[in-house]
From TrEMBL:
Annotated ABM domain residues: 1-73
Domain of life, per lineage: Bacteria
GO terms, molecular function: monooxygenase activity
Protein name: Antibiotic biosynthesis monooxygenase
Source organism of this protein record: Limimaricola litoreus
Protein's UniProt keywords contain Oxidoreductase: yes
Length: 102
């Protein structure tokens, strides 16, 4: 499985508008995406009001590519968020099984 961490920083003054998009559009969209095993959305906190994130666990690389395209190393951006976001970052990791549960 692949862990994909997607982080955004909103444009100044766009925090509330992005928060509505995040909760009303992005989270439901990601939860309904085929190939995702788990989605952990992270909303802004008072000390970082412009930062939002998703931690996604993908079944495999094929599922991730079906969502993001062949160049899955680039952020997949919904057109509705493009004008709201100042910066995006994306990272991928191989998921390590929890050895403490054994």
């Amino acid at each position: 499985m692949i862990m994909r961490i997607f982080e955004v920083v909103t444009r100044p003054g766009k925090e509330a508008e992005f928060a509505r998009f995040f909760h009303d559009t992005a989270i439901p969209l990601m939860r309904a995406t085929k190939g995702l095993v788990q989605v952990l959305p992270g909303a802004a906190r008072s000390e970082s009001p412009r930062e939002f994130a998703f931690v996604m666990i993908w079944r495999d690389l094929d599922a991730l590519k079906a969502f993001a395209g062949e160049d899955y190393t680039q952020p997949h951006v919904d057109a509705a968020e493009a004008a709201l976001v100042e910066h995006r970052s994306i990272r991928h990791y191989d998921l390590v099984a929890d050895q403490s549960a054994a």
